[in-house]
Amino acid sequence: MPTLRIAVVGASGYSGEELVRLVSRHPELQLTAITSRSSAGRPVGSVIPGLPASLEKLTFADIAPADLAGHADAFFLALPHGVAAEYAVPLRKAGKVVIDLSADFRLKSPEIYKEFYGHDHPAPELLKESVYALPELHRDAIKKTDLVACPGCYPTSILLALAPALKNGLIDPGSIVINSLSGVSGAGKKADVSLLFAELNESMKAYSVPKHRHLSEIEQELSLLAAQNVVVTFIPHLVPLTRGMITTISAKVTRSLADKEVESLYAKYYADEPFVALKTDGTLPEVKRVVRSNLIEIATRLDARTGRLLLFSAIDNLGKGAAAQAVQALNVRFGFEETMGLGA
Amino acid sequence: MPTLRIAVVGASGYSGEELVRLVSRHPELQLTAITSRSSAGRPVGSVIPGLPASLEKLTFADIAPADLAGHADAFFLALPHGVAAEYAVPLRKAGKVVIDLSADFRLKSPEIYKEFYGHDHPAPELLKESVYALPELHRDAIKKTDLVACPGCYPTSILLALAPALKNGLIDPGSIVINSLSGVSGAGKKADVSLLFAELNESMKAYSVPKHRHLSEIEQELSLLAAQNVVVTFIPHLVPLTRGMITTISAKVTRSLADKEVESLYAKYYADEPFVALKTDGTLPEVKRVVRSNLIEIATRLDARTGRLLLFSAIDNLGKGAAAQAVQALNVRFGFEETMGLGA
Amino acid sequence: MPTLRIAVVGASGYSGEELVRLVSRHPELQLTAITSRSSAGRPVGSVIPGLPASLEKLTFADIAPADLAGHADAFFLALPHGVAAEYAVPLRKAGKVVIDLSADFRLKSPEIYKEFYGHDHPAPELLKESVYALPELHRDAIKKTDLVACPGCYPTSILLALAPALKNGLIDPGSIVINSLSGVSGAGKKADVSLLFAELNESMKAYSVPKHRHLSEIEQELSLLAAQNVVVTFIPHLVPLTRGMITTISAKVTRSLADKEVESLYAKYYADEPFVALKTDGTLPEVKRVVRSNLIEIATRLDARTGRLLLFSAIDNLGKGAAAQAVQALNVRFGFEETMGLGA
Amino acid sequence: MPTLRIAVVGASGYSGEELVRLVSRHPELQLTAITSRSSAGRPVGSVIPGLPASLEKLTFADIAPADLAGHADAFFLALPHGVAAEYAVPLRKAGKVVIDLSADFRLKSPEIYKEFYGHDHPAPELLKESVYALPELHRDAIKKTDLVACPGCYPTSILLALAPALKNGLIDPGSIVINSLSGVSGAGKKADVSLLFAELNESMKAYSVPKHRHLSEIEQELSLLAAQNVVVTFIPHLVPLTRGMITTISAKVTRSLADKEVESLYAKYYADEPFVALKTDGTLPEVKRVVRSNLIEIATRLDARTGRLLLFSAIDNLGKGAAAQAVQALNVRFGFEETMGLGA
Questions:
Q1: Contact list, A241 vs chain C (CB under 8 Å)
Q2: How far apart are CA C315 and CA D62, in angstroms?
Q3: Residue A80: exposed, middle, or buried by beta-carbon count in 10 A (0-12, 13-18, 19+)?
Q4: Least trusted range by pLDDT, from A112-121, A231-240, B297-306, C44-53
Q5: Which residue among B15, B332, C175, C186 is buried most deeply as judged by most CB within 10 Å?
Q6: C105: pLDDT confidence band, cut at 50, 70 and 90?
Q7: What mean pLDDT do residues D119-140 have?
Q8: Alpha-carbon separation of residue D92 from A238, D3, D7, D100 (angstroms)
Q9: What does DSSP assign to residue C288?
Q10: Where does the pLDDT of residue B331 fall: very low under 50, low under 70, confident under 90, or very high at 90 and above?
Q11: Is residue D208 exposed (0-12), middle (13-18) or buried (19+ Cβ within 10 Å)?
């Protein structure tokens, strides 16, 4: 019998939809509120496919931030940055656990927030208690926080690929170059001509260079891993598929290395991680093997000709990159089996 | 009235098809032979869409290399590497002009050919006369050769993006990292399960790292441009669209630079090039603007935070990356207007 | 040297874009005005890919209907229905030739217009002079009108498939059932969540049954062909590709027929039509052979088991279904070679 | 604890893959053999994404038909027609339960099998015991058979849409016209140029008219439903998505009807069916709501203008059209909860 009442706030976007699907299948969770300003009053099943019949007839609610606390024990916020804080403040005041998928509580520094997001941080007083909720890096801290700040999709695919290399001092942090390819659901469900099928299909491009907003959290976490200030080049691309993300990283090695040695260090680093799949069978990470899961595939290759280590990862931007990882973080926070409801 | 008789050898592959389409619209060219072993005897129009009615009823011929020379004045070879040389040797003996789209005559060194292609070069004696036919780099040499070796799609998208930066000494050649994204027609028309719609759709991946075959010609030409030996990291990706290629390059700058200065140097370098479109309007290169054309879009961006220059290009892998560029090279070789038949 | 000055009104939608591309390649046409309310002031080349360099730097104008007449000799209206009439009225008053791609002047009956479009006809006085501009059916009338009403995409694919069967009395008009599949560019370039890539990709559905607006013109023209009142079942579907339309029709035969006899009657009916490609090689019409052209592929099959004639057609909904057919109609109206600028 | 040992024979095709995924999640089933001739010896996880870690390291076996019986209690055959019978015969001799996804045991008449499949039936003696396993039509018979013949994807989408109308005498069986649209996984995982991404993407077509093989089982079952011999027109189409099927049917009504009356009869007919979702909210069946499920969406619309009833259905061709429906049939046969392991 479910033990935890859950609200999904902003449930009609792509991450919100996926959260509703995942929560509905999680044995310890009970969906007690599904809110959406734009879809208020509509049956949930008419917007979100793949729900159990019991949920389909529920309607989206439009509940003001101040009135929300009583509706659940834990709250997933699948809202735009800036808006999430409006909900997090009263919910935290009411002592509720907030699992935020926006960028509002990922950065420790309100100054860097302002630099990258263009406006003052809406609730800087909450930054002290928030935890950057990449479970593979900050599992213990997640267990103790009530403000769980889920990483962005790009950062997830990048940080998990780089962590073992940086922690083991294999690469020069100043030489890191990151290229990522994202499916279009990552751009959200916005009525915008640039996101139309006929605009994106059979095309692709790089965008938001050289300073995509996710750089701020990427560099914050890389700096922690490397124990020094890290600045990287990051180039995101938009490609014509709905879900999926590939990240490819190169960096100069700091010493002579063999492929097997790198693989062995990665295997050791991720030995107990249920959602990290290290590819050592000669294939490289591929979207179709991770889509609709919480998996991240990671592979490493030495480029002996140039003295660079190449790192590859694949995730589902809505899975490990958003909703599934948020459920993983909730599992960690509430002491459930970490894989519960995530099909691994 | 057409003045030059043309054969397309290997016309049922994707590059061959595109060549047939382009030649059929070129006012100075007359298609006198269309060969294909696998489609021999079938009407050309049943395999290649978009042809003028006059060509649709022609059938593919299967003509042995030794018997081919009489059928045309100039010969496009759209054949696998290794096979192309079998045709080039007798055609050159007969004094014919060969425009080869395979990798057989792109490299100056038979040793590097063997290193990258895994077998001895099939006709090393022809390497002295062949010209690496990127018109923007080797226009004058193309005019004088009878063995025109058209560049690969990846190299085209890479070399034209890097040439002005290297020639002007803006970047450190040892720091070049290249990521490319290719549509699946680049993998050819092979009955291979890995190329099925249901295998590639809604997926993507990096492949052929760290030593894709195209690296050999990329480094040969970059070394010429930089006047020093250049070794680079190159990571190709397969993405789910039929036609198109995006290349993204980063390299350390050698001195303090401003965006406008770089744009101005690129503008000067490509001032007279009809097929190079420099994007200085704030957008980055995009496949949909170059597909089914001989255009390459190029943009530059300084990443001041990391001291890197970012270079972006977009081409159609079957257009500027293969068939259209081959027609451009033919125009150069035979003294036609360089844009003739190429819609620019 | 171009002889006719052309305006494309509403040039930033998908049909408008395609018209600009086609007009720019037509040897007798000169683009003197490109208007768009939503893109006014932007360079044409930033919105429409694939234009000659000479056009790319032009900017979209926003010209009021009353001020437009002086800007060109002939005017393509690529506007929503209802809006087109606002432009057509003053242009016709000024004696200009109007080639309208909207539904405003396709129907002879203002009552049926109101039934299907939900409001009074905006300019019923012009219906007397307008001609339903399917050249294969009304070529002579097109030559004499100054108000050319181009058919919709569905009607084009349906009427040309049915015309020979109805004219020859091969089928019972009361038994006609039509299924059509349209690429998503047919839904237009609207900022609507339902048209996003992530909503349409990997999905499909029927829609607008049982009374899609195009039924009105389909039945008007079928009734003329059959010389009796014809009512049909028409079911459109939305499928995940950008451009292309497949129509499949079945109807009871009125007498015993053989496949060859039907093919021969179709061949005779379309003997002189440059854009009708009858498939008699065993294949059925296919989008990839007609996309980006003004072709319509048509095939016929008898279903002896059920006594039905099956009819198949393929067009590009933006080509023969919209912009290219509009240029064909202009060629007819102004006495140019009918294939001029249309690559056939 | 799982109670039934399961073999999936032919597990590397698309239906076989999906079966492995579904069986691995079913609480009462234990996978004891996964066979594939083409992938024999390879790890299952390298071919089939999305498996539990416990299964990924298993390898595909290649077990001869005669040696298979000991490996499991029940056997899913995901094999080409003709081949399935080679396995079914010895398995049935050994007293095992066979759940066949091929066409080999769907038809009651070996003569009709020969007419549609072009060769003698390979095991006509087994036709007496086999049951056409559409649970919504033949649930009781499935419970009692050891040779479960799962319907094809087209027939599933067609028969469930038509059954209530035929059973209630709403339509004239002689007037039925069926159009279906299938995603390309329905064509199987064959190394065939016609199935390449670059061949199918951005195209579509009708095919296999007028006598697709599935017509044989469609008409067999429609005749049973109508209690008279039924012959129909059926036109399948191939469209560019991986998974999904839309069927659209029209037929003359036999009497005056209202939309609500038809909906009410359908609701009554399918009142207890867990996998039939009747759409009465104004929308029509849509692939994205049924993909990766065992659901069929069905909607009805009267076309008052033509006196036809329009029927619409959507399934996943690999779900309700193949693997998921096979698991549903197994659940029925072995007395498990019918929705077990199927996520409804």
A1: 201
A2: 47
A3: middle
A4: C44-53
A5: B15
A6: very high
A7: 97
A8: 53, 20, 14, 12
A9: G
A10: very high
A11: middle
Those residues whose C-beta lies under 8 Å from the C-beta of residue D134, and which sit 6 or more positions away, are D151, D155, D156, D159, D160, D221, D325
Q: Measured between CB atoms, does A300 come within 8 Å of chain D? A: no
Pairing state between β A233-238 and A177-182: parallel
Domain spans, chain D: 4-128, 154-317
| Residue D344: predicted pLDDT | 55
pLDDT tens digits, residue range D2-34?
A: 889 999 999 999 999 999 999 999 999 999 999
pLDDT band of A55, cuts 50, 70, 90: confident
**Is 1.20.970.10 the CATH classification of the domain at C154-317?**
no
Cα angle C225-C231-C232, degrees, rounded to a multiple of 5: 95
Average model confidence (pLDDT) for chain B?
Answer: 96
Mutation for testing the D interface, residue in B12, B201, B202 having most D CBs under 10 Å: B201
d(Cα D216, Cα D99) in Å, to the nearest integer? Answer: 20
Q: Does C177 touch chain A (CB under 8 A)?
A: no
Separation CA D270–CA D35 (nearest Å): 37
What confidence score (pLDDT) does residue A344 get? 54
Q: pLDDT per residue over C312-322, tens digit each? A: 999 999 999 99
Structure token pair of residue D230: 């039924």
Marked catalytic residue, from D153, D181, D245, D323: D153
C285 touches chain D (CB under 8 A): yes
Element (H, E) at C252: strand C245-252
The neighbouring-strand residues paired with C303 are C308
Interchain contact D14–B (C-beta under 8 A): yes
Compute the radius of gyration of chain C from its Cα atoms.
20
Mutate to test the interface with A, among D281, D286, D297 (most CBs of A within 10 A): D281
**What SS3 class is residue C195?**
helix
CB-based contact (8 Å) between A205 and chain B? Answer: yes
Residues of C in contact with A182 (CB under 8 A): none
User: Residue D196 and residue B197: Cβ atoms within 8 Å?
Assistant: yes
Mutate to test the interface with D, among B182, B184, B197 (most CBs of D within 10 A): B197
- For residue A169, report the phi and psi dihedrals to the nearest 5 degrees: 65, 30
Which pTM value belongs to this model?
A: 0.97
Contacts of D179 in chain C (CB under 8 A): 179, 235, 248
Closest to B276 measured CA to CA, from B255, B294, B252: B294
CA B22, B27, B28, B33: dihedral to nearest 10 degrees? Answer: 50
Q: Do A237 and B231 touch (CB under 8 A)?
A: no
* Subunits adjacent to chain D (3 or more Cβ pairs under 8 Å): A, B, C
Q: Is B285 on the interface with A (CB under 8 A)?
A: yes
* Terminal-residue alpha carbon distance, chain C: 21
Which residue among the candidates C79, C84, C107, C153 is catalytic per the annotation?
C153
Structure tokens at D236: 């399948």
Instruction: Report how far Cα D96 is from the mean position of its chain's Cα atoms.
Output: 21
Average pLDDT of the residues in C74-99: 97
C153 annotated active-site: yes
pLDDT digits (tens, 9 = 90+) for B284-326: 999 999 999 999 999 999 999 999 999 999 999 999 999 999 9
